[in-house]
Design goal:
This protein is of the alpha/beta class and 310 residues long. The protein has 2 domains: 211 residues, P-loop containing nucleotide triphosphate hydrolases (Rossmann fold); 61 residues, 2-Layer Sandwich (Alpha-Beta Plaits), CATH 3.30.70.980. Helices cover 35% and strands 29% of the residues. It has 11 helices and 14 strands. The strands form 3 sheets. It has a 6-stranded mixed beta sheet with strand order 6-7-8-3-9-10, with helices on both faces.
Length: 310
């Protein structure tokens, strides 16, 4: 694989086994400096194992991982100064306030205490800064974990399911922060089982399933795959075979009728034609919904992989 000096993260035949269980099969992967890169796939596919190995929490069973050109396992202290990590499930001491926790981590990271109030404000936690963490909701706790991670200005952020439990406000803040980091040329590597996260946040995606690297795609290519497998569902005042036939003639595939509801798939450029054909055939549409595909559909239709991985 490429040995470009601009790579921030490089996996070289990395694999991870737990006894006889092969959690991650040998993979090669490279994340460039300044890139926002998503590890995407169903739960239990190996994404978290890969991230934990990148930050030095798992020793490779084979191969190696380089961060900033340094071997993670051979030079752990050096590598840890280059990155900030947010695990999938954030836990904090219950008997400390949010301000106390952020200040504690600021001291551990050798960061100016002036950053404490800054990150609390950035993640909309200022008004809750003196509350005990045991009183926090899941979304607030996730925001606190992100605030701690963003204390330091490091070249690499490693985030495991960063939108997990985030409320709408936290999600807006998080996306704004990522945008700011991208503008500064920071490398962002995150894992998610939600395809929409990659489409909204990433430059490239690596699809991981059952411990295998299935494919690396640009976000545009992956977007096309998701869009092509997205189901459109319309609710009609009355459905009929004639309406369904009109939809098929306009480009709809995999059409299904269930009472007043009809669902179909179609190429993005044909969807509007299908909707118009339904209306011309007498269909009175009262509701319109889009439903993204599940992982089994994506892996089967786009990547040619059969089996139940959800």
């Amino acid at each position: 694989m490429s040995t470009s000096v601009s790579a921030m993260v490089r996996l070289e035949r990395f694999e991870k086994r737990y006894g006889k269980v092969q959690a991650v099969r040998p993979i090669d992967l490279e994340v460039s400096e300044g890139e926002t890169f998503a590890l995407l796939g169903p739960n239990g596919g190996g994404k978290t194992t890969i991230l934990r190995a990148i930050v030095g929490l798992h020793r490779p069973s084979g191969g190696r991982i380089l961060v900033g050109g340094h071997d993670v396992w051979r030079r752990p202290r050096h590598v840890k100064r280059l990155l900030s990590y947010v695990p999938q499930r954030v836990t904090m001491p219950d008997l400390l306030t949010a301000r106390e926790i952020v200040a504690l981590f600021a001291r551990l990271k050798d960061v100016s205490l002036s950053r404490v109030d800054e990150v609390l404000e950035q993640f909309a936690l200022s008004q809750h800064a003196d509350r005990f963490v045991r009183e926090f909701s899941g979304g607030m706790l996730q925001r606190l974990g992100l605030a701690v991670a963003f204390l330091s200005e490091v070249p690499l952020f490693v985030l495991d399911e960063p939108t997990l439990n985030l409320d709408a406000r936290g999600l807006r803040v998080f996306r704004r922060m990522l945008g700011d980091l991208k503008q500064r040329g920071t490398t962002i590597l995150f894992a998610s089982h939600i395809a929409q996260n990659a489409l909204q946040l990433a430059d490239r995606v690596a699809v991981i399933a059952e411990g295998e690297l299935i494919r690396v795609d640009t976000v545009a290519a992956f977007d096309a795959a998701v869009t092509g497998q997205t189901t459109v569902r319309v609710v009609l005042r009355e459905s009929s075979a004639a309406i369904e036939q009109a939809a098929v003639e306009a480009g709809a595939i995999d059409t299904r009728r269930n009472g007043a509801q009809m669902s179909f798939r179609a190429r993005p450029e044909q969807r509007l034609d299908v909707i118009r054909a339904i209306e011309r055939a007498g269909g009175d549409i009262t509701e319109f919904h889009t439903e993204p595909p599940d992982w089994n559909a994506l892996l089967s239709e786009h990547f040619g992989i059969e089996g139940d991985v959800a």
